């Protein structure tokens, strides 16, 4: 027996990422994750509706501080995420290659693109307000200002096929504008998403801003779509039947719904995914010469 | 329904003098701390689901003493609280009312007005709450003030300093004096501030001392210190009221207060009540929760059971 081969392999326990912590599923369940050739890779937690509920509580708690943070600060933190990803690139390349059956170089290209996308969205945090907000000309002695504000707690059904680049492309725009997210990872390939949780936990991103759940998409997404404390849902990873069902459930508290659409995640995105989860607030501010009191009233 | 008359007859003359009282309290069996905590923890693992959960939530709502005890309390806030106590969930009129609203003495009149005609009681803290560091005359004046304003229940704090110094008779006399000042109509809750009593043995002694002095309720804490109601100290007090009724025939209520924020916690306490004191205590005449944020969580859980959808803080009032 050679001494080098005698070392036992250390398997990784993949866990959920909720509220800045790494819990197992409340249900205690796991399911087998395989690569593109049906070879076993790891056991991933099979999240239940109670895990989804806990994630909403965590996301709601994080919303105030995160949406209240300056856009500049959010940009810094998102950039930090990209830095951390860069340091763990090898791991993500391996996980993406296994999950999607890609060659190492193709997987590396995906991961590079995903890291660049974080940087791209990090730059948008303090610029989006200039693009979609502004001063409106009105016929009266008023300033009329429109500013974009985050929608709130957003459920993101991550794309099923593009396990990492697709995931980053739907999560980053949601949190860049100050929303908090509950991410339902790709059912077949959840490992890159669960590892992303570990990166986010070490990137100054406050706990609860992104929460990652793995498991059966329909089982987790259904209670989230009906949840009264979720403000919006991105159906990117839902198939037609599920998307319809979720949209009906989401109508109950008038959630914002982003329907699934064909996207090439390799291309540079527009700002649609950011504006989809922004509300426009318009305020009227009286103008006029100031009186002696310092006010025009 | 058992009466709540002073129980000196059944326990002989343990309150005759300082030394007999001390001998009695120190003669109580010591508490097995590990066993107590293990018992409380194991009872906390019971799974209460579906119809039992619905029953437990409604029962818990009916047991809430909806509390606001802040320096910033205004008559307006107390009125809002009173309305919430009467109609906890305005969108669902089948929701039970809470047991009481709990306020400072100067807010009793406002609270009384807000809950008039609803059956919701008004409880007032008194006796220099929460520290209890004032002369007896001042404490009694505080109590009379609350009662004359119309309080149905008075929550007094014991003199922890005297208790910890071993001056049990002083504590006893104070409770008796407050009991007399209340008159016959109002019920007396005695707060021990278990977080300041240091040991489980002390909590057991305080429980018996309070019951001997004529408390209608024994209450864990003020909610103003770091450690408030825990399952273990509530279990200990439930054992005390059970044993007290077995010896004297007098039933005394229990009120854990502070730190109970979720429906899950509340249901754990109800399991403790059922398994320790028994079904006789599963009524808001004998068991209460001193809480403010608990009610919202109970209401959200109730809405979840009714609709099948998880509710959120947008659908309950913020107070």
From TrEMBL, chain A:
This is Aldehyde dehydrogenase. It comes from Streptomyces ureilyticus. PANTHER family: ALDEHYDE DEHYDROGENASE-RELATED. The keyword NAD does not apply. Keywords: Oxidoreductase. InterPro entries: Ald_DH/histidinol_DH, Ald_DH_N, Aldehyde_DH_dom. Pfam families: Aldedh. Residues 27-257 form the Aldehyde dehydrogenase domain. The keyword Oxidoreductase applies.
Automatic annotation (TrEMBL), chain B:
Its EC number is 4.1.2.4. One of its GO terms (molecular function) is deoxyribose-phosphate aldolase activity. It holds the Pfam family DeoC. It catalyses: 2-deoxy-D-ribose 5-phosphate = D-glyceraldehyde 3-phosphate + acetaldehyde. It is an enzyme of class 4 (lyase). CDD domains: DeoC. Pathway: Carbohydrate degradation; 2-deoxy-D-ribose 1-phosphate degradation; D-glyceraldehyde 3-phosphate and acetaldehyde from 2-deoxy-alpha-D-ribose 1-phosphate: step 2/2. The keyword DNA damage does not apply. Keywords: Lyase, Schiff base. Belongs to the DeoC/FbaB aldolase family. DeoC type 2 subfamily. This is Deoxyribose-phosphate aldolase. It comes from Streptomyces ureilyticus.
